[in-house]
């Protein structure tokens, strides 16, 4: 058996999202698209989330599970550009998830919200990101989605 997985804190991320666009029911589920207008990340690397990101959302039939697929352009405080892509699941009782979506104060332990992610970077000082996987624990506040990300080491 291989050794245990360890996690190193990477950063906390807070996003600002615009109004979502309902695509509607498709053969793959109910689809929404939400533009990400910006945000901030702080930790081992820090910087801003640039406008232009998108959160592609698929809801199952009873809306108890949301599958997310997000791509974000990041700019570090040092001026490096990085792409963050993450996907995951937000699941729970439909009433709880409706409150979360409305931005109401809901205890994060009352629903499941985890993602896994990867990066793309072109600059030599950011090349280490091209070879790591991260995981994140999400929550939703009145101002938007928030995540804590860890490097899988």
Question: Can you walk me through this structure?
Answer:
There is one protein chain. The chain has 153 residues and is mostly beta strands. The protein has one domain (7-152): Beta Barrel (Porin). Helix content is 5%, strand content 61%. It has one helix spanning 94-101, and strands spanning 7-17, 21-26, 29-43, 47-49, 53-59, 65-76, 81-91, 112-121, 133-141, 144-152. Strands 1, 2, 3, 4, 5, 6, 7, 8, 9 and 10 form a ten-stranded antiparallel β-sheet that branches. Strand 2 (21-26) and strand 3 form a beta hairpin. The longest helix has 8 residues, at 94-101. The chain is globular. The mean pLDDT is 95.
The H-and-E topology, N to C, reads as EEEEEEEHEEE
Count of distinct strands: 10
- Overall 3D shape: globular
The total count of helices amounts to: 1
Structural class comes to mainly beta
Q: What is the CATH T-level topology?
A: Porin
Q: What helical percentage do the residues reach?
A: under 10%
> Which CATH C-level class is it?
Mainly Beta
Cα-to-Cα separation, first versus last residue:
16 Å
CATH architecture: Beta Barrel
Low-confidence stretches are: none
- As an assembly, this protein is single chain
Gyration radius over CA: 16 Å
Domain module count: 1
Overall average pLDDT? 95
User: Beta-sheet strand percentage?
Assistant: over 45%
The largest sheet is: 10 strands, antiparallel
Protein name: UPF0311 protein EZH22_27860
Pfam family, one: DUF3237
Family: Belongs to the UPF0311 family.
Organism: Xanthobacter dioxanivorans
């Amino acid at each position: 058996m291989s050794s245990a997985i360890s996690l190193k804190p990477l950063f906390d991320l807070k996003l600002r999202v615009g109004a979502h666009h309902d695509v509607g029911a498709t053969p793959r589920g109910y689809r929404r698209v939400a533009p990400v207008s910006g945000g901030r990340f702080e930790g081992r690397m820090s910087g801003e989330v640039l406008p232009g990101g998108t959160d592609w959302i698929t809801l199952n039939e009873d809306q108890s599970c949301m599958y997310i697929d997000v791509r974000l352009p990041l700019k570090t405080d040092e001026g490096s550009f990085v792409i963050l892509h993450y996907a995951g699941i937000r699941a729970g009782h439909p009433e709880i998830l409706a409150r979360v979506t409305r931005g109401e104060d809901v205890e994060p332990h009352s629903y499941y919200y985890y993602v896994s992610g990867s990066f793309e970077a072109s600059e030599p000082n950011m090349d280490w990101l091209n070879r790591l996987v991260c995981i994140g624990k999400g929550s939703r506040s009145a101002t938007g989605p928030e995540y804590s990300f860890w490097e899988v080491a």
